[in-house]
Amino acid sequence: MLAELSIKNFAIIDELHIPFQKGLTVLTGETGAGKSIIIDAVGLLIGGRGSVEYVRHGEKKAELEGLFIIDDTKHAVYQKAKELGIDIMEDHMLVLHRTISHSGKSICRINGKLTTLAILKEIGQTVLDIHSQHETQALLNQDKHIELLDYFYQSNHSNFKNHYQKLYQHWKELKYKYEANNKNEQELAQRIDLLEFQLNEIQNADLQPNEDIVLTDERNKLHHFETIHKNLNDAYNALHGEQKGLDWLSHAANNLEEAGEHNKDIQKLQQQYVDHYYLIEEISYQIRQHLENMDYEPGRLELIESRLHEIDQLKRKYGQSVEEIMTYSAKIEEELDEIKNRDQHLANLSEMVQEAANDLLLEAKELHNIRKKAAKQLEKAVLMELKDLYLEKTNFQVDVFIPSKEKGIPFEGKNVRPHEDGIDQVRFLISTNPGEPVKELDRIASGGEMSRIMLALKNIFSKHQGITSVIFDEVDTGVSGRVAQAMADKIYNISVGSQVLCITHLPQVASIADTHLKIEKVVKQNRTHTTIQELSFNQRIDEIGKMITGAELTETSRTHAKELIEMNHKR
Question: Any coiled-coil ranges, and where (predicted)?
Answer without folding.
Answer: none
